[in-house]
Amino acid sequence: MDGKVRELMAVAASLAAGCSSCLEHHVGEAKRAGATPEEVQEALDVARAVRVTALTNMDSFATKVMSGEGALAMATSTGGKCGPNCNC
Q1: What CATH number is attached to the domain comprising 19?
Q2: Which helix (H) or strand (E) segment is 75 a member of?
């Protein structure tokens, strides 16, 4: 993978992660690596779509938890511990 693609990925990751200093740094690095303003904008658009989808999915999941579905039911059945896919 070339430096431009790597920096465009970092731009998207920075926005999705909500890190303003990383975003500013990686936008500059992407431009220095030859990314056009349109390519940087596309990376930002992809990150926004990922972030909005994740937020929407978690909001829906929170509603399920509050109605007794999902994690709340799992916590009851596992003695209050997280489920099998959790790393905490």
Answers
A1: 1.20.1290.10
A2: helix 71-77
pTM confidence score: 0.69
Tell me which residue range forms the domain holding 73. Answer: 3-77
Q: Beta-carbon neighbour count of residue 58 at 10 Å?
A: 11
The answer on pLDDT for 10 being more than 70 is: yes
DSSP string for 46-61: HHHHHHHHHHHHHHHH
Q: Using CA atoms, how far apart are residues 45 and 56, in angstroms rounded to an integer?
A: 16
Q: What is the pLDDT of residues 16-34, one digit of tens each?
A: 999 999 999 999 999 999 9
* Residue at token pair 């829906």: 60
Number of domains in the chain: 1
pLDDT tens digits along 57-74: 888 888 888 888 765 555
